[in-house]
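Tutorial handout. Part one gives the primary structure; part two gives the three-dimensional structure as tokens.
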Amino acid sequence: MTKSKVQNIVSMREIQRNYKRLFDKVRKTKTPLFLGSYAEPKVVILDVDSFRQLEKKSKNQHKAMNWIKVYKDLERISQKGRQNVNLAEFIKKDRASR
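Part two.
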């Protein structure tokens, strides 16, 4: 993971004193709020919509990676020619890999 410059870092003390104002700002601006100490971010607070978008993007990327794997497997199989494949074993291994 690469480090990026984080400008919106607040301390736990500031959260304790101003949590309502800070949380409202996160919701209104859709800008993440980083909690940390000594200017080092430790935790991120996101608005719910931003979190859901990230979650959806992550799931879509995971699905895409699965399809790429299937495509590569099919390509490899087609290059090797016909093989004896036990469908039940194939399904069992596929389910175990998830």
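Part three, for discussion. Residues 50-96 form one domain. The mean pLDDT is 85.
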